[in-house]
Write a structure and sequence with these properties.
Elements: H1 2-10, H2 12-21, H3 23-32, E1 34-36, H4 48-60, E2 65-71, H5 75-86, E3 91-96, H6 97-101, H7 112-115, E4 119-120, E5 123-130, H8 137-150, E6 154-156, H9 159-192, H10 198-216, E7 222-224, H11 225-254, H12 260-288, H13 296-325, H14 327-332, H15 344-351, H16 353-372, E8 376-377, H17 389-401, E9 405-412, H18 417-428, E10 433-437, H19 439-443, H20 454-460, E11 465-472, H21 479-495, E12 500-502, H22 504-538, H23 542-565, E13 569-570, H24 573-601, H25 606-638, H26 642-672, H27 674-679
Parallel strand pairs: 1-7, 8-13
Antiparallel strand pairs: 2-5, 2-6, 3-5, 4-5, 9-11, 9-12, 10-11
Length: about 700
């Protein structure tokens, strides 16, 4: 490693040029990586609801669908509009009263109860089916064309419309997210470090490794919009420590070596050794979320694990070269750090450690109770900005037709029409069901099926299945709709064992079951993995327990705040935050504990060892924690997509809570349990 480090520093200009050349394929890879905006896409493929969506596409050529509410149109205008929609690329079919009857059957001839299914006042309802999935680029382009063709009097509702608006909103803000994170992080570093130029160098080098990471996503084929939006911000926050470690090591080595090149070579070796353990815990946290059955976790986990590894490489390869090239300018822009002397924290902890241990005990129950009972939501459309066209359309559909969601029913074609009618009648009696719509219910009693053109029949019947719609007044992810889905499935299976109830609400119900299971599995895996890493690094049985427990307390304190404040979190929030905060901030605890061990082994008593450990590590922990906070909090305040905003605010608050717990409570525990630590740590045998 030493030989490589010397070679690296002596060839710094070619190394910098090579790193910059690698940005070209990175940028091209970023541009070619597709983005998924439908979170239901990440459900396990073996679920019946997911299989049903595939059957819908294979048998009927229908992937996504939207319900259209038109306002103030005559029957003739409605028919013309529906016919025009059919010509839009990737619109598979349009089912509406006007186009189905081709205007041959006046509305006035239809019984009132049948008419209410597609007309309320001056509003009419029709369904548009697309030949691609909800988050396909082709579907989103078709949604835009439907809006243009239908005009201002038409409201396009449904998941595909929400996905389309989400894409537009996120793409407008992605660049701003990174700009906010960089600006606030640079400000914090300029105030807390000893140079105005150095933070900019840090951020530029981290930016290069971020581009390497995002470019390499090309080999994954596609990533989620959440991963795309937060990966750069997260990578900046979790890898910033490494740059700070390198700089501090370089400054120390300058006083011990004859040349700056030799000092940097030694700093590279020391930094690489010290951040291996640190980066392993962070990678372990991200790898653990890859075990989620809801594969959004794997998506984010793979990207962020790559990001940490590439961040380490950027720190030990690119950053040393840039610092050596810019050494003169760094010295000219040096200043005294504004961060005050923090050595007093150690004295405070040493004097009041028993009181601090009591505080720790007192906050355990309320913190973990709130953490275990935090409220989450699953319907993303309910927390989108109210001015979005899709949100307005969903509200129009609910207010006018009393429909909050629509289920799709796939029934075997061999089931007799009598059984289908009986089943539909039974389903109509289920609480919250507005109507069950098939060909016979659309036409009404006494109207022959032969009146329908063959192409219309093909829209709702295949060789294997017939398609029906169930309109529900219950909102997605509510207890009421989930109970309704269970009841409907019970009725369906009595008439057709192979029948399937699919759609956004049934998929969301499966999502709830998946993520409840994932939370337990992912938390357990991350704790075990990080426990093992700390045990091997610290050569101790007790220290991994203490360190993980302290950070878990910070996580519980973070996630209990929404519970006590009555705030709902997006469903992925608790899962991702619990692993990200553990993996990213346990480094603070490792640094503190390592200094404590070094001090004890050098002959200090436990009080002096803890006091000196806090004094020597507090500045690094504060700078790192404040930097992590700055990189995420501004994005959390600005983002208009709640799932991104909530995650960033949780991560930012978690960074500060971890800093507070590590600087105040962990040293108190080290003092209290010093004898236990000494007797359960291999390399502290001499102190027994």
């Amino acid at each position: 490693m030493k030989g490589f480090a010397r070679w690296l520093v002596s060839h710094r200009v070619p190394v910098i040029l090579l790193c910059l050349v690698l940005l070209v394929p990175s940028v091209l890879g970023m541009a070619a990586t597709k983005t998924k905006y439908d979170l239901l896409y990440y459900l396990p493929q073996d679920l019946e609801t997911v299989k049903g969506q595939q059957i819908l596409l294979e048998d009927f050529g229908k992937g996504a669908f939207s319900l259209l509410v038109t306002e103030g149109m005559s029957l003739q205008d409605q028919e013309q509009m529906e016919n025009a929609l059919k010509k839009i690329p990737h619109v598979d079919s349009v089912i509406g009263y006007a186009s189905v009857t081709k205007g041959m059957l006046p509305v006035e001839m239809i019984p009132g109860d049948i008419r209410e299914k597609f007309q309320r006042g001056d509003c009419m309802l029709s369904a548009v089916f697309f030949d691609e999935g909800s988050s396909a680029e082709e579907t989103m382009e078709a949604i835009q064309q439907v809006r243009k063709t239908a005009g201002e009097k038409c409201f396009v509702s449904g998941l595909s419309a929400v996905v389309t608006d989400t894409k537009q909103l996120v793409e407008e803000q992605e660049g701003i997210y990174v700009g906010i994170a960089v600006a606030l992080c640079a400000l914090v570093l300029m105030l807390t470090m000893d140079s105005f130029l150095l933070p900019l160098i840090f951020l530029c080098c981290i930016g290069v490794s971020i581009l390497w990471n995002m470019g390499s996503n090309y080999f994954l084929g596609e990533i989620s919009y959440i991963t795309k939006a937060v990966a750069a911000v997260l990578q900046l926050g979790v890898t910033l420590d490494y740059s700070i470690f390198l700089w501090h090591s370089y400054k120390e080595q300058q006083a011990l070596t004859e040349s700056k090149d030799e000092a940097m070579a030694e700093a590279i070796c020391q930094t690489f050794t010290s951040i291996i353990g640190s980066s392993l815990t962070t990678v372990a946290g991200f790898v653990s979320i890859c075990f989620m059955s809801f594969t959004l976790g794997r998506d984010l986990g793979i990207v962020m694990s790559k990001g940490v590894i590439l961040g380490v490489l950027g720190t030990v390869i690119l950053l040393p070269c840039v610092i050596r090239v810019m050494d003169g300018l760094i010295e000219k822009t040096s200043h005294r750090p504004i961060l005050p002397n923090v050595s007093g924290i150690g004295r405070f902890v040493a004097r009041h450690y028993k009181l601090l241990c009591l505080v720790l005990v007192l906050i355990i129950f309320p913190a973990f109770y709130g953490y275990s009972n935090v409220n989450v939501y699953y319907d993303m459309s309910r927390v989108m900005p109210q001015n979005l066209l899709s949100v307005q359309a969903n509200q129009k559909l609910e207010n006018t037709f009393g429909m909050a969601t629509t289920h799709l029913l796939l029934v075997d074609s061999d089931v007799s029409q009598k059984d289908v009618r009986d089943m539909a009648e039974e389903m109509r009696k289920v609480d919250g069901v507005q109507d069950v719509i098939g060909i016979d219910t659309l036409l009404g009693a006494g109207i022959p099926e032969s009146i329908l053109p063959p192409e219309v029949l093909r829209m709702v019947r295949s060789d294997r299945y017939q398609l029906m719609l169930i309109n529900s007044s219950y909102v997605i992810s509510s207890d009421e709709v989930n109970a309704q889905i269970d009841t409907l499935n019970g009725i369906l299976k009595r008439y057709d064992q192979g029948g399937m109830l699919i759609g956004e609400a049934p998929c969301t119900k499966d999502l709830i079951a998946c993520t409840n299971h994932d939370f337990t599995v992912v938390s357990l895996i991350s704790i075990i993995a990080i426990f093992v890493i700390i045990m091997l690094v610290q050569k101790s049985i007790s220290l991994p327990v203490l360190l993980v427990a302290v950070i878990e307390l910070a996580i519980a304190a973070n996630l209990c705040i929404p519970y006590y404040s009555g705030t709902k979190l997006p469903f992925v929030g608790p899962i991702l935050i619990s692993t990200i905060q553990l993996g990213a901030t346990v480094d603070y605890a490792i640094l503190m504990t390592t200094r404590y061990k070094q001090n004890r082994l050098s002959g200090m008593n436990k009080t002096e060892a803890v006091e000196k450990a806090v004094a020597s590590s507090a500045r690094s922990i504060l700078v790192s924690g404040f930097g992590f906070f700055a990189a995420t909090y501004g994005v959390g305040l600005y983002a208009k997509v709640d799932i991104i905003s909530s995650m960033c605010r949780l991560i930012a608050r978690g960074a500060l809570l971890s800093v507070a717990v590590v600087l105040l409570l962990l040293p108190a525990v080290l003092l209290l349990l010093d004898k236990v630590i000494v007797h359960t740590t291999l390399d502290m045998k001499a102190l027994r």
